[in-house]
Write a structure and sequence with these properties.
It comes from Streptomyces pratisoli. This protein is an alpha/beta fold. It is built from 11 helices and 10 strands. The structure holds adenosine-5'-diphosphate and magnesium ion. Magnesium ion binds near residues 46, 47, 90 and 167.
């Protein structure tokens, strides 16, 4: 069995032209089947890291590994990367460009030179996965923001990546839109896609992710989400808010209602079930 991460940045460093270093010595590994939340405040380097991971930017130091092998930035290497790792950028208007949803979603698979029938099957599957099959012929400029977000994700899903990388996918969505998106991501995950999400929403990360990676000025810390987001010093250094659930657990512990080493509730629903045992 291949236990190396699907994709991995090792000792990665990057700076934009004439700017200070954005990332230095970053180790970031995406393990197959684990949902990973990349957390950091605005400007901490989340987008930069995701672009390094998906090949849009190239490391100035360190390297990018795919299945344990260094990525070569020639045509063959980049195709191998693109068919494994797909990035969905934060603003769907930076991603969508074709006249209709169906045309946009078909662009990636067509560019791979796949037969027309295969392209059609992939487009149908991706639209279905994102719950937007009815929008196939709709002009992209007539879609709502949430629909445009889902169309952009469908374009990535149509590439059948093993790793789907989403930059702030819930930003700008209303609560209902967020729930719909999380349901979609849950189904993709069940279908075997590994999902990486950048966010500054610690409550969302705690609820959704298996693992977290937190960007702070002292570097990147990675680990199981509950442990990492219970580390107040780390959250302060990263200038992230404490998750709601962590504050709730502190109150419960202070009142002797939760053992010091017991995990606290992750959501309000869990707290409700737990506080009122069946
Ligand atoms: N195209 C760019 N040119 C120059 N500096 C940039 C560019 N994009 C981002 N930066 C800078 O890099 C840093 C990290 O930005 P970014 O990766 O977008 O962080 P985040 O996604 O966490 O908000 C910020 O200081 C930002 O101003
Ligand atoms: Mg960003």
């Amino acid at each position: 069995m291949n236990t190396s991460p699907v994709v991995e940045l090792a000792g990665a460093g990057f700076a934009y032209a004439e700017g200070p270093p954005v990332l230095r010595g970053v180790d970031f590994a995406v393990a197959a089947g684990r949902s990973l939340a990349l957390l950091g405040r605005n400007g901490s380097g989340k987008t930069t890291l995701m672009r390094l991971l998906s090949g849009g930017l190239r490391c100035a130091e360190g390297r990018l590994l795919l299945d344990g092998e260094p990525v070569t930035y020639d045509r063959k290497g980049l195709t191998r990367l693109r068919t494994t790792v797909q990035l969905v950028v934060q603003d769907p208007d930076d991603q969508l460009f074709a006249a209709s949803v169906g045309q946009d979603v078909s662009f990636g698979p067509m560019n791979l030179g796949l037969p027309e029938q295969e392209v059609r099957a992939r487009v149908a599957e991706a639209l279905e996965a994102l719950d937007i099959a009815a929008l196939e012929d709709r002009p992209t400029h007539l879609l709502s923001y949430g629909q445009r977000k889902r169309a952009a994700i469908a374009g990535a899903v149509a590439m059948r990546p093993r790793v789907l990388v989403l930059d702030e996918p819930t930003a700008g969505l209303d609560p209902h839109g967020q729930e719909r998106l999380l349901a979609v991501l849950g189904r993709l995950r069940e279908g075997g896609t590994t999902v990486v999400m950048a966010t500054h929403d610690v409550d969302l990360a705690l609820r959704w992710a298996d693992d977290a990676a937190v960007l702070s000025p002292s570097g990147l810390r990675t680990g199981p989400v509950a442990g990492l987001l219970a580390d107040g010093e780390l959250l302060d250094a990263a200038r992230l808010r404490r998750p709601w659930a962590m504050a709730a657990a502190e109150v419960l512990r202070a009142h002797g209602l939760l053992a010091a080493d017991a995990p606290g509730p992750r959501t309000a629903e869990e707290l409700g079930r737990w506080a009122v045992p069946a």
